């Protein structure tokens, strides 16, 4: 390259650059020396450079040195060869072709020696340590090291940004003893939450108070010194929630979760209890004998699998609900009687996201099935369902419910993340004469913050449309038995700190629901677009607001148009 500088006028100079790019060079022969663990063919398949490829040194060095998936260094480090080194040497240049020799020093396998966790002043040492895949005496593995950082970040007790930073993990190798010491520098963050919320539903205001302790310790419950304000440190979850607007509507719920049952295996235990009561007393001073009460409980066990890999979790749950109606004239299938819903739920989930709050990579896929006994199959074949009352038909509720949910996160550049999501659900029946169950359907549309939900249904938010506006109704009851939903969301963080996380988002969304599987059409969706912001505060939890514009008609509108949606304690 040459340059020349010349005078133009006072205060101005001109510069001309002359660049000679030279000839383009190509790889010819690539040879490997010093390799005993892998053959030249295996290493070439990882290097992915063939004879005649452009001589791109940058790409070659990335595939040799960077400890990422599918590169030579990562290949050796996952087998314990931490001290592995490779040096590419240009052996010959013939015309426009280059011969490269890869000179390798494999060394000896290293093992983990001291594993230290610093900064866990609330979370018990054993709770953090049981999530690690790096243990003293284990063969060194780069993947195990990265997986340990991911699991610590996913616990929710530590700041994930601190863990993923350069100072989050310290690796000190000792080539003399073929050992490596690892220190995880964690920073505790408050993840207990207080929920104070209000919502408008059923022409009334509903207030909510909730407490969620996400690092609870049941073993310290009798230790007076541990109550600050509650015993913490064992990674358990305890939630208490109360909703009411006076005599019209009241709901109580509680749940407890132990992620490591008996403390030595990643088997989770989940228990929940809940009660709701609704009357026709629209004012707090009214009294009435008309009411609907719901009693429910559930217990589940989640087991981490080893195949196909250890990111899969199989969850089984047994639940029971009792719906008791007394002269109830509002939005239900009958007025007096009792319905019972006893079901078994099985869910297979694989979660590989790098952290729970602002994931930049990974995915979360779930297949779910919820079934009840087929009571109608045990009835007489000549049962006259047409003349049977609804109270008789649905005394014992029956259905089978299928759900598929998939979410993927991909880093585009820096912290800019593309989130894509697809959901599908179907509520089926055993007996065509009995038809679809009025329970456990899907209510689609809006933000899911309508205030309350009186009986079995799953709320599916879809921005750009009012709450529940995309759900069919039959006999004054919601009848969404099939739904789909698709989301593309671009996210960018504004603040990523232990005290708060704030990110902005743009979204495209579409979905719909149908009353019958025969009407299902995955291309007949209601579309929307918009933007929003999310704020995670340690005590309050996730807060957010979205503006969405619905492009398709609903009810008497040619377009749903502009809609604002609020998020409290949940994410779309």
Task: Describe the overall structure.
By secondary structure, the chain is mainly beta. The protein folds into three domains: 24-64 and 84-105, membrane protein fhac (Ubiquitin-like (UB roll), Roll), CATH 3.10.20; 111-185, membrane protein fhac (Ubiquitin-like (UB roll), Roll), CATH 3.10.20.310; 193-568, membrane protein fhac: a member of the omp85/tpsb transporter family (Porin, Beta Barrel), CATH 2.40.160. Helices cover 9% and strands 47% of the residues. It has helices at residues 40-47, 57-65, 72-77, 125-129, 142-154, 160-164, 390-393; strands at residues 2-9, 12-18, 26-33, 85-94, 97-105, 111-118, 169-174, 179-185, 193-201, 204-216, 236-244, 249-258, 267-279, 291-304, 312-326, 337-351, 362-371, 400-413, 416-428, 441-444, 457-460, 473-474, 477-478, 482-496, 501-514, 526-537, 541-550, 561-568.
Topology:
Blueprint: E1 2-9, E2 12-18, E3 26-33, H1 40-47, H2 57-65, H3 72-77, E4 85-94, E5 97-105, E6 111-118, H4 125-129, H5 142-154, H6 160-164, E7 169-174, E8 179-185, E9 193-201, E10 204-216, E11 236-244, E12 249-258, E13 267-279, E14 291-304, E15 312-326, E16 337-351, E17 362-371, H7 390-393, E18 400-413, E19 416-428, E20 441-444, E21 457-460, E22 473-474, E23 477-478, E24 482-496, E25 501-514, E26 526-537, E27 541-550, E28 561-568
Parallel strand pairs: 3-5, 6-8, 20-21
Antiparallel strand pairs: 1-2, 4-5, 7-8, 9-10, 10-11, 11-12, 12-13, 13-14, 14-15, 15-16, 16-17, 17-18, 18-19, 19-24, 22-23, 24-25, 25-26, 26-27, 27-28
